[in-house]
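User: I'm writing a tutorial on reading structure tokens. Could you give me a worked example: one chain, its sequence, then its tokens, then a sentence or two explaining what the tokens reveal?
Assistant: Sure. Here is the example chain.
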Amino acid sequence: MQPCLTRRRASLALALIGAIPLALSIPSLAANELPLAIKGYDPVAYFTAGKPTPGLPAFEYAWDEQRYRFANAENRELFKADPVRYAPQFGNFCAMALSLGQLVEADPENWLVSDGKLYVFGKPAPAGPALFQKDLTHNIAKANQNKPLLPIK
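And here are its predicted structure tokens:
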């Protein structure tokens, strides 16, 4: 004996089928709600182009609860392969300020790549990168000690 498809079961099946496209779009909606990392600048470009380069919305990648933008697909792929290598050490925050126990939003135009790591700063030289470099080892250690000050994601 074959089970009979009732109106109620048919309505339920149609509702479930109709919900599939909505369910599949939820991850992309959630990704767009993630905060934009380093004001949309391409973190890989600091290493490859040697300068701050704005990223494009067409080349985004969500990582560590932030949206990163890239100048091109190649930079996005490099980041995907090794995000820890390219991401700024203290996220969207000034490395020098964090070493002093302060939280200051970084300006991606003020930056430093040292020992293969990206640091961004709130102010240009002499308050940002130059001051940080004067006692690099100590400032990195202090900023790392103060990481608990960073907002929890």
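What the tokens reveal: The CA atoms of residues 67 and 124 lie 25 Å apart. The first helix runs from residue 7 to 33.
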